[in-house]
């Protein structure tokens, strides 16, 4: 593929030329109702984005580029936000991991392996009883209770995206909806978003045919969406973006660069191979102050207060809740 410089889309020209997903209005109506309810209840609301975006190469899509992300960071973080009393808008890539059900992912911990069949209990009238294996009950109960509680308290609202275009349209719309709660809103942008896309106008309608040798595709750069988010859509929101790098030497300079360019609150930097054990918060304590770095690390085999294997997201969310509360408390008074 060719990464030669091509046309630059501003956010404005992007939305003027690329089509909105057909479900956008319906999705936005759902978010509006959810945010209104959370506002009545006085809850803080976090938008968690999670999973990778695709870039289709054809209108009748057979092939696409994808961004790496299983959705673990987002799904895990959403659980800790719920535990901290936040309402969560969980915007994730279709079929990526989700809060609670992530514990029983089909590949690492298949749900069917939790179950036992009691052949003694069957007769000609009824099928045998199915039960959860005793050794699995305590863990399942804990996850199930947290899940049921979040549902009963109407604390979580879920939205899905697949393409980078779906993601951008949804992000703009959801940010605008969340802006009504001002400083009570937090944006936790953990999705892995493509930097490149193929504008609709340049896409082939049908499957790209082979037979002409190599394939050369020129992609355009995805507009830098954090800029309008900070300046226009979510002016009072507490915005946390993520920066993923594979070259450790680039992590801090890139995270600092993003903070300087967009002027939001925090960039969480993570290295692909170390992301489950260490992250770095890059931020300014106060506007105008120097940028500082704060590392969070967990050791291998770390155990949390409940006796479970420690997840770094527990510490990330605890730190963010503290900083978000300080941000809310610092709100300039109305008079
Ligand atoms: O979803 P996951 O747990 O497999 O990975 C999380 C992550 C590395 C995608 C996330 O922490 C992140 O850095 N997101 C931003 C990626 C980016 O720079 O576009």
From TrEMBL:
Residue span, DNA/pantothenate metabolism flavoprotein C-terminal domain: 44-99, 154-276
GO terms for MF: catalytic activity
Domain of life according to the entry: Eukaryota
Gene3D superfamilies recorded: CoaB-like
Cross-referenced Pfam families: DFP
This protein's name: DNA/pantothenate metabolism flavoprotein C-terminal domain-containing protein
Family: Belongs to the PPC synthetase family.
InterPro entries, alphabetized: CoaB-like_sf (IPR035929), DNA/pantothenate-metab_flavo_C (IPR007085)
GO biological process annotation, one example: coenzyme A biosynthetic process
């Amino acid at each position: 593929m060719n990464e030669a410089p091509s046309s630059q889309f501003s956010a404005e020209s992007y939305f003027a030329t690329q089509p909105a997903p057909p479900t956008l209005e319906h999705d936005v109506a759902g978010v509006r109702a959810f945010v209104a309810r959370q506002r009545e209840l006085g809850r803080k609301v976090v938008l968690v984005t999670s999973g990778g975006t695709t870039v289709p190469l054809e209108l009748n899509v057979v092939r696409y580029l994808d961004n790496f992300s299983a959705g673990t960071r987002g799904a895990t973080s959403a659980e800790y936000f719920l535990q901290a009393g936040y309402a969560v808008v969980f915007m994730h890539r279709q079929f990526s991991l989700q809060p609670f059900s992530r514990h029983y992912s089909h590949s690492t911990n298949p749900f069917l392996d939790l179950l036992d069949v009691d052949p003694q209990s069957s007769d000609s009238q009824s099928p045998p009883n199915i039960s959860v294996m005793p050794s699995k009950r305590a863990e399942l109960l804990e996850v199930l209770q947290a899940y049921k509680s979040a549902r009963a308290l109407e604390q979580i609202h879920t939205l899905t995206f697949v393409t980078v275009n779906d993601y951008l349209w949804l992000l703009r719309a959801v940010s605008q909806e969340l802006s009504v709660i001002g400083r009570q809103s937090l944006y936790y942008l953990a999705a892995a978003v493509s930097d490149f896309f193929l504008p609709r106008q340049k896409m082939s309608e049908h499957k790209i045919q082979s037979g002409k040798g190599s394939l050369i595709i020129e992609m355009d750069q995805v507009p830098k969406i954090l800029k309008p988010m900070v300046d226009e859509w979510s002016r009072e929101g507490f915005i946390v973006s993520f920066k993923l790098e594979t070259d450790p030497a680039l992590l801090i300079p890139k995270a600092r660069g993003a903070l300087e360019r967009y002027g939001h609150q925090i960039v969480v930097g993570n290295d692909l191979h170390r992301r489950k054990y260490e992250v770095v918060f890059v931020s300014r304590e106060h506007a105008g102050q120097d940028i500082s770095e704060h590392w969070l690390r967990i050791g291998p085999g770390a155990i949390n207060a409940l006796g479970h294997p420690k997840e770094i997201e527990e510490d990330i969310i605890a730190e963010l809740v503290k900083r978000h509360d300080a941000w809310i408390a610092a709100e300039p008074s109305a008079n």
